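Recap from last week: sequence in, structure out.
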Amino acid sequence: MTRQIFFALAASSALSILAAPPTVVVKKAGAERVVVSVETTADGAAAQAFNASLKRNLSMTGYFQVGPNGQIRVTGTPGANVVAAGAGKQVTSAAAFADAKGARMAARQLSDAIVQAHTGKKGFACDRIAFVNRKGADNAELYTCYPDGYDIRQLTGDKRAVVGPRWAPSKEEIFYTGFLQKTPLVYRIDMSGRRKLLEQFKCLATGAAISPNGASCALVLSFQGNPELYVLDFASKRLKRLTKTPTASEASPCWSPDGRQIVYVSDTTRHPQIYLMDVATKQSRRLTNAGGENTNPDWGPDGRITWATKRGGVNYVAVMDPSKGESSARLVTEGGSWEHPSWAADGRHVVASRDNALFIIDTDPEGDKPMRLFHNQGNWMNPAWAR
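Predicted structure tokens:
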């Protein structure tokens, strides 16, 4: 398998097939939200960066709207003492910072604290997003940034293809498939750029997804023939084979929050569909039937699965409760070139790629329209949200 072919497969453009027309399209007008007035001082570049980041992050939560005369007022001096008071709650921040980068981090922390205080839910402002910038058919690099679109950082510079980044539970390490050798293999890289090979597997190794307890990873290996789904135990180095599909290929495994099941893609029917595997019993069942091409599943913290589905020749982002089956599925975007949705820690938002850009999608039926992370030039794709 050439690098070009594999990259195309990872980008979910491997097959051109007939698909059923969509049944539901969510058109969002935006629900009514609590107004927050950011009235902190803005003396100096760092304070201005704090204010801009705080406004941006609050606006992305789906719960708040930044504006005058808010039910919640944020006052004080960034870097010294900031208070967000109103609606029966008070949140304070005394985080000090020396520059704009530190100011943005303090603002993200305050945004998450406000979300927690007023909704009881976890915010996502401090959780980085990993993604790929494809610079050519055989050249892509790994990057990270925060959901507000700031502090973009390049982690690799090999001028080789990179696909499939997935975060470790620690949020300090990313597993990805790289082409530093002739065969695509799985690498792990930390936030300082230190990298090492997961294992020197024979033939293809890809799609590594770390279990919630960090003790093992699901991945796709082809050393026994066609690509099959396995679980690697980190301590013992033992492999457990989960699938035996001699006429099909598996891809894109992802663990359930309790670590007992894995959702993955298989083209057993000659078209990629999503399946659910019980790790203990190795029993598998098909989850999707609607749509001719269903790819890139990600299992969120609230138990729902998101994935990309092709219907009527275009892609949508969809969500479902796997315990209820496909009858619970909803399309949460309008049609486009959507790929690789990945859940945030709040169980409401996902990040996905479309038209060489990255967007945050509010999956709430009354939520906001997709918001673009940044407008930097590049072919940005394959996002994965730390959580």
